[in-house]
Prior knowledge:
By secondary structure, the chain is an alpha/beta fold. It has helices at residues 21-32, 47-58, 92-102, 123-132, 165-175, 193-200, 231-243, 262-269, 314-322, 343-353, 384-395, 416-422, and strands at residues 3-6, 12-16, 34-41, 62-66, 69-75, 86-87, 108-112, 135-139, 143-149, 157-159, 182-185, 204-208, 211-215, 220-221, 224-226, 248-255, 273-282, 285-293, 301-302, 327-330, 357-361, 364-368, 373-374, 377-379, 397-398, 400-404.
Amino acid sequence: MDMVINEKRCIKGIINVPGDKSITHRAIIFGSIAEGDTLVKGFLKSDDCYSTMKCMKKLGVDIKVVDKNVIVKGKGLYLNESHDILDAGNSGTTMRLIMGILAGQKFKTVLTGDESLKRRPMNRVIKPLTEMGAKISAIDNNYAPLTIQGNKLKSIYYKTKVASAQVKSCLMLASLYADGETIIEEPYKSRNHSELMLNYFGGNFAVDNNRIICRPVSKLYGREICIPGDISSAAYFIVAASILPQSEVMIKDVNINYTRTGIIDVIKKMGGNILIENERVLNSEPIADIIIKSSNLKGIEICGEIIPRLIDEIPIIAVAAAFADGKTVIKNAEELKVKESNRINTMVSELKKMGADITETNDGMVIYGKEYLNGAVVNSHNDHRVAMSLSIAALRAKGITTIKNAECTNISYPDFYKTLNVL
Ligand code: SPQ
């Protein structure tokens, strides 16, 4: 599908963004291995979350969608063998988290994904899960399709090379099947939804700076859980309202977990006008309303510890930088190369087609802002975050922009264009 977008002078309105993708995946997965029912309210109805549901159903879990909610009838820690291949589609979270559970089962499972997911590295979880005792075979020891023979697992102490919530969550899940205390240490803190939600479900996970101490429990308990708005989806409108003159947008009920709010810190540091109101806590997660007014952004340097707190927002931050005064440098973001696309390369090449002054570096990009970009034909590379980021860039580009393969927005935000039209 091609999406045609015209230059726009300003956006205004009050919106909600859909449920958080990371939290929806976890609610379905953790609910599946809990005992009793889990009611997931306001879940994200997107392709990635449906991939998770399909995989868990193949493992014998009864999952029903009723209107805006999902009811998961937990099976406890041990699931049914699937005689079918599990397909995680485009979703890295689905594949890596489920691998942690499969490592502790009493059967063998085959797991695959789409062309993009089959190119994403899995050795980051294969290595520690193998150390724990699972038997895993994969293409070049790294890529799906993969086969996992579950086993009785040993507890380990594992230091991850990258700050990755998927690696950490995979190992936290595997630790539930281990014979003792498992410790996971990451270089910087990645998103902590698993820690918060697993404890809410009755797990025993203690946090000590960047270490998670995981003690197995005999069971998890199904709970009711409300999914807050996804800050990664809100990010497109945070940047749109910032770069378009005389704009004002309120985004209600957004998750503002510290491990996810790097986007707010960066836009504020660039001179953005952002207000956080009505802060409260929803099932262990902080939420609030975010008000954004247009502002004159200036270029900054973005690197180090903040990177995992905004890893999925770097494509839209590149768009903000393309309209900011002066130079923006993004460093230490090599993880972007192994997402749904190589997001350094795809954002640089597509924004260049629109006339941006942007250069790819080994671990990020350098951008000199301009007053306007030019409408062009650009490609999403089937990456939802690239499609949505380029769509926002198109609002401040002279003429018409055509986004090729824009249907990939269904991966995380099926109503993205509807909401953009409302604004
Ligand atoms: O699930 P997937 O495909 O990996 O999704 C992405 C995204 O852009 O939506 C990344 F491509 O988000 C990841 C995120 O980058 C979701 C996630 C999670 O829910 O645990 C963690 C991050 O990945 P990682 O590799 O840093 O752990």
